[in-house]
């Protein structure tokens, strides 16, 4: 497998993962957090455990931020993929004429910066999606600062442990690829 094929496959992976997360964001946005029948909070809990409207507002805001980051990352990755294909295609077809652009030589520094920018967009989107899920837990199970929300902590603790760990592995891999 050539280096160009590896880069194109990596860009395809970024776009595919971002697409899955974007789907999750849209599913999250279609859920109505203010629907009173959609909560698992016990009515015997004190009202201090019930989330306020700011939690629902944060939920929607984090979903929108997440969607924006994933869309940005995917668009950068698709642009890089197209530029790489054009540059690769111009090497194989010496008689191809590009109107005003010479795309035969891809700027490796620009491609690397593009990869990092796309990765940063994916990481930010993942962080915002994680924060949105924390708000979903608070709406469904009660505010985390409340004493009766042990199920909320049971849901949130693995989320805030595994997502940052996965993001750390992703960032280290991107950094390793960036330096090679």
UniProtKB/TrEMBL annotation:
**Taxonomic classification, please?**
Eukaryota, Viridiplantae, Streptophyta, Embryophyta, Tracheophyta
Source organism per UniProt: Perilla frutescens var. hirtella (Perilla citriodora)
Q: Reply yes or no: does the keyword Metal-binding apply.
A: no
Top-rank taxon of the source lineage equals Eukaryota
Q: Where are the transmembrane segments?
A: 12-31, 60-80, 113-133, 153-178
> Which UniProt key words apply to this protein?
Membrane, Transmembrane, Transmembrane helix
Please indicate if the UniProt record lists Transmembrane helix as a keyword: yes
Q: What is this protein called?
A: Maternal effect embryo arrest 60
Segment forming the signal sequence = none
